[in-house]
Amino acid sequence: MTTLQLADIESVETTENSDILTQLVTELSDLRERVSDLETENQQLRSELADERQQRGQSDASIRQEVTDLRDELADERQQRGQSDASIRQEVTALTETLEQGSGDDTPTAESETTGSVPPQTPLEQVVSLDEEMAESELTANQQRARFVARDFRQYATSVPAGLSMESGDIRRVLRAGTDTKGRTATVSRVMDFLDDLGGDGTRVVKRRGSRRIVADESLVARLETAVTGESRTDNTVVMSRAG
Predict the structure, then answer these.
(1) Which residue(s) pair with 159 in the sheet?
(2) Among 134, 138, 135, which residue's Cα sits nearest to residue 150?
(3) In this structure, what are the phi and psi dihedrals at residue 179, rounded to the nearest 5 degrees?
(4) pLDDT tens-digit series, residues 156-165
(5) What angle do CA 95, 98, 101 make, to 5 degrees?
(6) CB 160 within 8 A of CB 208
(7) Of 190, 168, 183, residue with least CA distance to 88
(8) Cα-Cα-Cα-Cα dihedral of 43, 44, 47, 51, to 10°?
(9) SS3 of residue 139 by DSSP
(10) Mean per-residue pLDDT for 117-129?
(11) Can you point out the beta strands (E) in 32-180?
């Protein structure tokens, strides 16, 4: 009886050891697979990191190139802007000389003394007072567009403490509604510059929050209204209804 029990115990111990060994082998195999997976994942991460560094380097190079290109464009724009300003000044000078030659003697006439009309004080007033035929023959396309805007400046402008103001967007809408231009940025800019230069001390361009606007003195706008003929005002009133 004792011998049988001892054999049974040894058999149980051997079975338990075998189960433990099998479990350890299984766990070891699982650990090896996990290590292999981690090594693979680590290799993938290293590869992704290398790709990211390469792409980052290319991205930085691209950004630097874009900055260089933008600087070049800005330099070109400044140069072109300087040339444009010089061209506008030349055109204004030539126009002023033409208007002065056409105006003849500035001595007030008996008619002007009787009616109380005031002689033009700025080239813009002279431009506005031209008849259509002379305006077409003497003015450039953008000068004619500036004249068109100036004839009814008050209707298009917004009242501000400094006078009457028109933003570039306002000028663009007026030009699109009443002229043959599509209101491109360059055209609007040149028209605004002509209004500024021809208006003398009565106009000034103001830059605010990345946009430009032209501000005209109330006194100048009043003189422009006096200089406009009845026919010219009628034409612009029609355009104003379309622009609105």
Answers:
(1) 164
(2) 135
(3) -130, 180
(4) 999 999 999 9
(5) 150
(6) no
(7) 190
(8) -160
(9) coil
(10) 84
(11) 158-160, 163-167
Strand partners, 86: none
Query: What DSSP string describes 99-115?
Result: HHHHH---SPPHHHHHH
Considering the entire predicted model, what is its pTM?
Answer: 0.53
CA distance 148 to 175: 8
In angstroms, what is the C-alpha Rg of the chain? Answer: 41
> How many CB atoms sit inside 10 A of residue 231's CB?
9
Q: Is the pLDDT of residue 217 over 80?
A: yes
Neighbouring C-alpha atoms within 13 Å toward the C-beta of 75: 6
Name the residue with tokens 């075998």. Answer: 18
Token pair of 224 as six digits: 């422009």
Reference 212, options 244, 181, 170, 243; nearest CA is 170
The model's pLDDT over 70-84, given as tens digits with 9 standing for 90+, comes to: 676 666 555 555 655
Positions of E strands within 59-202:
158-160, 163-167
Distance from C-alpha of 134 to C-alpha of 143, rounded to nearest angstrom: 12
